[in-house]
Amino acid sequence: MSNLQVPETWHAALNRLQRDGTPHVLATQVTSAGSTPREPGARMVITADAIFDTLGGGTFEWQTISAARACLAEQRYGLSLEAFSLGGRSGQCCGGFVNILLEAFPGATALIAIFGAGHVGQEIVKLGAPLPWQLHWYDSRSDVFARQQQPRLHCYSLNDAAQSVADLPANTHTLVLTHNHDEDYMLIKALIERDDVASIGLIGSDSKWASFSGRLKRDGYTDEQMARVRSPIGRIHATKLHNKTPYAIALTVVAELLWLTDTPSSQENRGLDSQSLRTLLTDPLTTTS
After folding, report:
1. Using CA atoms, how far apart are residues 252 and 247, in angstroms rounded to an integer?
2. 86: which residues sit within 8 A by CB, 6+ positions away?
3. Which positions, given as ranges, span the membrane (predicted)?
4. Burial classification of residue 284, based on how many CB atoms lie within 10 Å of its CB (0-12 exposed, 13-18 middle, 19 or more buried)
5. Does domain 110-261 have CATH number 3.40.50.720?
6. Predicted TM-score (pTM) of this structure
7. Domain-by-domain residue ranges, the chain?
8. Which pLDDT tens digit goes with each residue over 59-90?
9. Under a CB-based contact definition with an 8 Å cutoff, are residues 199 and 173 in contact?
């Protein structure tokens, strides 16, 4: 992975990465003793391929970057403490001691691909804005994304349904709700051919899905592949819903996505490990790793 030093302050990078939903780690020097490159309060931000600002350089900074990227690679989000003896673990001539607090952020908790920027699609995007989701929005019409700006939202032209689906990252939750039934069908065909898509939702009536499933069978797709499609989307929460306005439909779709994307945290406790915290508060000269 790259150690590209980007000319951007840690606080500017932190704001941008949080806004864009990019996984990152904030590293903060919380204690020091003896001779150290920087004082407590020094910070840097680390992503998988870039670093922003510095803790003073040298081997211990490289070790901090390595520990931060291990958190990202292993999806160990939350707080952890790294302790460095600059004359021991880090082999630097300073001879001091530092404790570095790592705060690893997942960025977005889920990736949602929305195919279609009609009335319902627009309401889904608005409702999804406060949620920690990365939204990828597609439409074949050139003018529908005018003035669309919000955090973690990326807009794309849908010129080739199969290629757009092929470019999706694994574990993406997908919604198909374009203005064109043939375009919807091509998207569904491409999506059910991928085994690594997290979920597939199709807007429409029961009769629309009956028509689609008949076409899919004639095109050689299996019952197992077709069973992966949720249609109509939002049905779990809208079985008896008579309000069919775009906003109401979008509410049920977003509620359904909340259930689908709600996974338990990989960490059983919150905050620092109790032993690490005790060490930090009582004896900052003792290394924890």
Report:
1. 9
2. 34, 35, 36, 58, 60, 92, 93, 94, 95, 96, 97, 98
3. none
4. middle
5. yes
6. 0.71
7. 4-107, 110-261
8. 888 999 999 999 999 988 889 998 887 765 54
9. yes
